Amino acid sequence: MSYLLKQLAREWRFLLRQKYLVVLLVCTFVMSGFAVFSGLSEVTQQKQTIERLKAADLTDLTNVQHKYEDPGSLAYYSFHLTYSSPSNLAFAALGERDIYPWKHRLNLLALEGQIYESDAQNAELAQAGKIDFVFVVSALAPLIVILLFHDLFANERTSGRHDLLVTTAKSYFALWGARIAVRLIAVIVCLMLPFYIGTLLSHSALADVGFVTFICVIYIAFWTALSVWWGKNASSAPRVASTLIGFWVLVAFIIPILGDLVINKTVHSPKGGDIVLTQREAVNDAWDLPKKTTMDAFVASNPQWKDHVDMQSEFEWKWYYAFQQVGDEKAGELSHAYRDAAHTRYQLAGIVSWFSPPLLLQRTFTRLASTDALAAFRYEYRMRGFHKSLREFYYPWLFIKGNPPKAALKNMPSFKKTMLNEMDEPEVTGVKLKENLSVN
Amino acid sequence: MTTPTAINKTPPIEQKTFDKHVSNTGAALNDTMIEVSSLNFSIKNNAILKNLSFSVAAGEVYALLGGNGAGKSTTLKTLLGFNKPTQGSVKVAGKEVTQALDFVRGKTAYLPESATLYPHLTARENVEYFLSLADIKKSDEQINAAFNRVALQRDAWDRHMQTYSKGMRQKTAIALAILREAPIFLLDEPTSGLDPVAIDEFNQLVRELALTGATILMVTHDVYGACQVANRIGLLKNGELVGEYDAPQSGRIDTEQVHAAFGHHANRGA
User: Fold this and answer.
1) Which residues pair with B64 in a beta bridge?
2) Largest CB tally within 10 Å, which of A240, A250, B54, B181?
3) DSSP string spanning A325-369?
């Protein structure tokens, strides 16, 4: 056995004889295992929900198409499932998927109300409360590292062994190097082993697993180096621990919380509820307005239908859907402000993350797992694109052609079919998506 | 009062011969193994050691005697390379400590004042652990022999050290030092806190080690113990060597003489 392995083997046996370290490592493994298990359960549940809704969607759509022939009723009663499937790595970093919606059933009615039924907070900075793998690694692992390393030197000094150890050891590595390496390896294994099992079960890409391993090892090594450096010349383990824990609380909680407060104070955003209310009031008011007023507003933004807006009766579906779209347009300004604010917050949170390693890790991880705010924005972008394609499909039948034949319904857009390529950019009114999505 | 087993088991010191020219440690007897010359050590302009000079030869027990704050432990730490001399030279086994730290530490067995080994390990496990740190492999028989030599009770060998008395811990640490086969022993207040029987046992052991050619430097404030075991005593006061006493042909230093000098200097410094 080589000299190096001999030193590591001795320190490994020595570590196993220290019960508190073993208990700490077992707790780490259990915590990581629980986080991976709950992440896998959540992702499985989301996937099952999507599959269940897909099947239900198909049945509903078939029933509606069987029951109705006119395009207005078809559009009114047909709901279309849109969804954002969790990535294979989502189990490890659920990210914003429990804040931002990942499924919607849309119909041809006004879109804004359908999107903003629930308001999203600035969840990017919300650290505590979600026990997924990235939370365990980013927020809890530093505490474990501190507990493992804070007394590495101080304990030996206070017990009077330090000088004996140093003068006995053949080299610096034989003692401190091996001790640090063994503890570091042990904590990394305890943290990462459940993750690797999770990646096997979720069929994650090897490159992603490699990258996650790389950033996690760098991150744990950073906290280890900090703990070792800070404790190297100290003779009081509690003092070392309290200083390091203070730093941990600062970067893991105080900076993100303060960042959140500052961002919320500086970036003003309308509430999702205000958008819904504006859109719905516009729609409700339209019932009492002269039809010409609505149609003029509609034609102003949709001039291609200007020759087909005359009405023959008191109620026509084209008028009904026109005022739905006008409702969307009236709420458009608020909606844009909301999305702009969300993007600005995301950008500012990125700046804050440079002062908070846990936040930076979480941000990097959720980006990789496509569970961050950007992924949620992209899903919304796709929803808007899909809703646009629904209007493009129905409007010719509503405004000109009348009842669509059954064969034509086969060309009805589905979310899966119209899922936009990431390089595509539909002309969604006022959405500065391309530039915003390119923001890290 | 029970008779200490160590004294019964170990041969009387007078039976050992001292006429070899080469010690068991490989160094020729009377070779200078520790040489401190004009050593000065300061911390933030505060002089801790002042122009300190002394030497210790192979087979010799040198006691550096002094009160609290005299600079005894600082001298030991400088010999072990924990302190860098502000001025002067510190040589161990012929090498400058600051230039050959690993070599010096390899030649040195250090016994701290409170030899607290790992309480959750047995004496044997502790010894094995520390030997492994030094990259030394010893058989169970060799470890047993060392335990026997320091008169550590057999039933304690495989017991966790948290149940040990200070004397037993000292013996274990000495056993470790013996197993390391280091030619130089640096002992920091080795009898502090020991009961009289344990002190006798310890002194006996130190004399035995010296007879095998080991170089022993002990720092202590115990005048009586130093006179019992040392060939020479250096009196340290406020970082200065203020007196040195050689053992006469009888092999014993006059305790009263040193005590008087120690008290005199202590009073003068007060």
Assistant:
1) B219, B234
2) A240
3) HHHHHHTHHHHHHHHHHHHHHHHHHHHHHTT-HHHHHHHHHHHHT
Rounded CA gap, B97 and B1, in Å? Answer: 46
Tokens of B33: 């193994």
pTM of the model: 0.83
Are the beta carbons of A267 and A348 closer than 8 angstroms? yes
Q: How far apart are CA A49 and CA A276, in angstroms?
A: 26
Could you tell me which residues are beta bridge partners of residue B28?
Answer: B22
Rounded to whole angstroms, how far apart are CA atoms A203 and A86?
A: 13
**Nearest in space to B66 (alpha carbons), one of B189, B186, B235:** B235
Closest CA to B175 of B118, B105, B109: B109
B5 in reach of chain A (CB within 8 A): no
Q: Do B12 and B6 contact (CB within 8 A), yes or no?
A: no
B235 at interface of A, judged by CB pairs closer than 8 A = no
pLDDT digits (tens, 9 = 90+) for A400-434: 888 888 888 888 888 876 554 444 444 333 334 44
CA distance, residue B75 to nearest chain A CA (Å): 14
Chain A partners of B111 at a C-beta cutoff of 8 Å?
Answer: 164
Mean pLDDT of A31-38: 96
Provide the b/e sequence for B120-156 (b: ≥16 CB within 10 Å). ebbbbbbbbbbbbbbebebeeeebbebbebbbbeeeb
Contacts 24+ apart (CB under 8 A), A229-235: A231/A149, A231/A150, A231/A151, A231/A152, A231/A153, A231/A154, A232/A153, A233/A153, A234/A153, A234/A154, A234/A157, A235/A154, A235/A157, A235/A158
Chain B residues within 8 A of A19 when measuring between CB atoms = 120
* Res A241: pLDDT: 95
Chain A from 121 to 180: CB within 8 A of any B CB: 159-161, 163-171, 174-175
- The span from the CA of B111 to the CA of A211, in Å, is 49
DSSP code, position A159: T
Does any CB of chain A come closer than 8 Å to the CB of residue B1?
A: no
Both ends of chain B: CA-CA distance in Å? 40
Q: CA-nearest residue of chain A to B105?
A: A167
Measured between alpha carbons, how far is B264 from B270 in angstroms, rounded to an integer?
10
- Cα separation, B20 vs B23, whole angstroms: 7
Q: Which of A3, A163, A170 sits opposite B133 (nearest CB)?
A: A170
Tokens describing residue B92: 């161990």
Residue A48 gets the label, from left (phi > 0), alpha (psi -120 to 50) or beta, of alpha
Q: Cβ B134–A169 below 8 Å, yes or no?
A: yes
Q: Any idea what the Cα angle at residue B139 is, between residues B134 and B141, rounded to 5°? A: 130
| E strand segments, A190-343 | none
**Residues A130, A134, A140, A144, Cα dihedral to 10°:** 150
Least confident of A55-59, A85-89, A283-287, A426-430: A426-430
Answer whether A168 sits within 8 Å of B173, measured CB to CB.
no
- Of the candidates A372, A383, A387, the one whose C-alpha atom is nearest the C-alpha of residue A437 is A372
CA-based torsion, B15, B18, B22, B23: positive or negative: positive
Tell me whether strands B215-220 and B184-188 are parallel, antiparallel or unpaired.
Answer: parallel
